[in-house]
Amino acid sequence: MNGDKLKIALYWGAACGGCDVAVLDTDEFVLELAAEADILFWPIAVDGKYEDIRALPDGALDATLFSGAVRNAENEDVAHLLREKSQVLIALGSCSAFGGIPGLANAVTREEILERVYLDNPSIELGNRTVPRTRVPVNGTELELPAFYPRVWRLSDVVDVDYLVPGCPPAPERVQEVLAALVSGTLPPRGAVVGAAEKALCEECRRRKADKRVARFVRPWEIVPDPESCLLEQGLPCAGPATRGGCGARCPDINQACRGCYGPPPGVQDQGATLVGAWASVIEAKTVEEAETAFAGLPDVLGIAHRFTLPASLLQRSCR
Amino acid sequence: MAFEPRIVGFLCNWCSYTGADLAGTSRIKYPPNVRVIRTMCSARIRPSFVLKALAEGADGVLICGCHPGDCHYSEGNYKTLRRQVLLKRLVAGYGIEPERVRLEWVSASEGQRFAEVVADMTERIRRLGPSRVEMLPSTRRAG
User: Fold this and answer.
1) Residues A148 and A74: beta-carbon distance below 8 Å
2) Shortest CB distance from A157 goes to which of B50, B82, B139?
3) Alpha-carbon distance A266 to A283, whole Å?
4) Could you give the dihedral angle defined by the CA atoms of residues A96, A102, A107 and A109, in that order, rounded to the nearest 10 degrees?
5) What is the ipTM metric for this complex?
6) What are the phi and psi torsion angles at A315 (to 5°)?
7) Number of domains forming the structure of chain B
């Protein structure tokens, strides 16, 4: 009955591979998945070439799970290819859904990145000015590298995406639910965020909230947080108030403030802007000077408030 | 054509909007560069309103509320003040000059002050030049 099996693909753009590991972390379910579906393409785990996918008729894949952001021309070309070949395209993980950690590169320019990595770096041999180029002639032939884009894009910026599965990485139980729904054909209508809750993380966080004000924000290494009470009320920049729940509040459970990887909850367009409002609401300051003192322990507001969502924010990138 | 700053002004209903109204009824002249939006309180102005204005082409955003201690809702303007400190840092992170986002207290009797604030801000932004925020196309080809 091989013809009835689902045909799926998994791909990674600008990603660390953590989302692929989250799929593998579903343990023996992966074997059930393999029994229900043919995995035609999965660079991290299964042999396969772009040519194999190009040879398929359009829509031949039932679904593709695409993790990683769109950083270069290869990421984008494969996104277009997989969109054409897939009936359902799922953005798996925060990079694909919001830009994620690679999206923080939108705080700087392409030129700054290339300068820092290839030219102005202590580990580079003196006088070596080798920078990547898209085309290089070698021995009468031409080698090609994908173009490095000026900024990072979400998957949905370049192709239509049917579902978002947030998380860095998504919790394996949530990944399993999504894959099981895919196999049984019970995914909700297209356009939904799946494998996540409809409320903010604070709703599922088990910590005690006392509606307390803080004198100042602290860096994580400055305090040993009390394991019972709200981390924000202890002065840690917890992203819980502006982050979608569904992960099971695993970070707060181990005394680590939420980093915001599930992205904004429903109704919130700009996670960082909402966090700025939430963080400002817990201090007591009555003057600008007092507020500056209270926020001294909060450097890099952009990077902390938009740790996973800079390309998805209202302004999307630095305009320097 | 000379650059004319486009400034979005969010004014609280109880003090600053009334102050701006007074500037008008008193026939005080000031630059026509501010587009005013009235809100019930300066604390109603979410940081996302400011970012949206910048994302859609504003060269500056002016927020005006009651003087500290005078808020119609007793604490609203303090909340605005606390947010403003972080909001300016957030905006600076995007490479936008923080002066483009300005918070001022204007009471209902300060028509003259409102006019001066607008004139001063318009002049400062004229000197900064147009916002460098790119108007974002709804692109399908990234590049």
Assistant:
1) no
2) B139
3) 26
4) -110
5) 0.92
6) -95, -15
7) 1
